[in-house]
Amino acid sequence: xxxxxxxxxxxxxxxxxxxxxxxxxxxxxxxxxxxxxxxxxxxxxxxxxxxxxxxxxxxxxxxxxxxxxxxxxxxxxxxxxxxxxxxxxxxxxxxxxxxxxxxxxxxxxxxxxxxxxxxxxxxxxxxxxxxxxxxxxxxxxxxxxxxxxxxxxxxxxxxxxxxxxxxxxxxxxxxxxxxxxxxxxxxxxxxxxxxxxxxxxxxxxxxxxxxxxxxxxxxxxxxxxxxxxxxxxxxxxxxxxxxxxxxxxxxxxxxxxxxxx
Length: 261
Ligand SMILES: NC(=O)c1ccc[n+]([C@@H]2O[C@H](COP(=O)([O-])OP(=O)(O)OC[C@H]3O[C@@H](n4cnc5c(N)ncnc54)[C@H](OP(=O)(O)O)[C@@H]3O)[C@@H](O)[C@H]2O)c1
Description:
binds NADP nicotinamide-adenine-dinucleotide phosphate, Putative oxidoreductase
């Protein structure tokens, strides 16, 4: 299969108003893609579009809530008005939840699953006919190292990212003969607005960004994985170590995480 290329591509990126999604959108547009940039904050999406004068590609802002089925229909209709085929769908929008499961309300679990799992899965379902028309399309799901290994204090978030991980593996196999690649990207802690908006029960936000990767670097690595049509990529050395330890020696991972996690 030929390498995926941004130039001339029609793409959708969710969660484009900040952090990783902003950077993925910016870098794709700089390299010639048309990016339908999705998030709730329309003013931020417009800022992104305005910041790209001189870019080869362009940003098409689409403001709305991805958990709204009617809005998901509108995104696909907008893509259809630009091109018959969709070359890339980046399911990146996500929210976190911090604090023990026992202290949280059912609403936290429901909201996290709606945004991190049901919304991207249903957007993908709608996008599949257009992705098939592309002939060389990629679905990139931005998960997390916590979609490979659960840790305490983030149970609902881990569950949502494990769900995306399992669904991505199934979908990749189902689409293997169709020319559509499914690329799972698993970042570790990234310096974005993520922790500012997480649904918390406890803890202070101050210590959580130590050693964080920049969204710019996460975006470059993610786009590199898309271009190479990789199945999955774990971005940080610490993340790779955690995944490796969990696969090779789960009992040790369990003990270390219960003690220090
Ligand atoms: N930051 C980290 O440490 C980290 C680590 C591993 C994985 N990740 C994953 O990376 C992805 C991007 O996170 P980030 O770090 O860039 O966080 P971020 O800066 O908080 O960005 C999250 C994006 O999602 C959008 N969003 C949230 N809820 C939405 C909704 N209901 N409808 C539409 N858009 C919505 C937000 O836009 P609006 O508020 O404008 O809607 C924002 O653009 C997430 O899937 C996250 O789980 C992050």
